[in-house]
Amino acid sequence: MHTLMNLRRGALALALSALASLASAATYHIELDTASLVADYGSSGWIDLQFNPGPGNTPWAAVTLSDFSGFGDAASAQLNGDVTGSLAGGYTLANTSDWNDLFHAVNFGGKIGFNVSFSGAADPTEKANQSTFSVGLMNSDASAYLGTTDASGSLLQLNWTAGLVADQGTVAAAPLLSTPTLPALAAPVPEPETWAMLAGGLALLGLARRRKPV
């Protein structure tokens, strides 16, 4: 009986630990559904991606972008501030200047997607300011932001807060002043070991359910 109870407790702890890892994931998949834009704006436009520090004391941080879909001609990309990389190898935006911006051509009519991974220095004081990653879309001549009336032009924003340990900060969605009319999704992407941990915990729970005390 005690063995069965211990098995259940261990399985539950493993599953809960995996779920906690999902909740604190530092990699997110961003997806924008642009199907509604074609009628008014044609088949192409621009995505405006920024990663900027807060005022005052903000520890070093960076975002790495990868796994792109719906992106257009890479030759026309504009990199401003501390932005490096390529569409083929991924882009990195660091918060070392006030304005760090990747302006890239995209195709309208389907879904635009990419992964964003956060990293950064530790903050032993736990009092430093956040850095903000923002996503916006613009029309083909870059004269207007699309899908939002927010003053920032953002469809969504994610705030990175440094933790006590390097690369162990937290990510939270920042509220916008207005609700975007264009569907925008930011979903955590679990690491492979997190999936394995969750699967292992669920498997143990299933085993514990099947076992009957004697």
From TrEMBL:
Q: Please list the residue ranges annotated as the Ice-binding protein C-terminal domain.
A: 188-212
Q: Which residues form the signal peptide?
A: 1-25
Q: Does the keyword Chaperone apply?
A: no
Sorted alphabetically, the keyword list is:
Signal
* Protein name per UniProt: PEP-CTERM sorting domain-containing protein
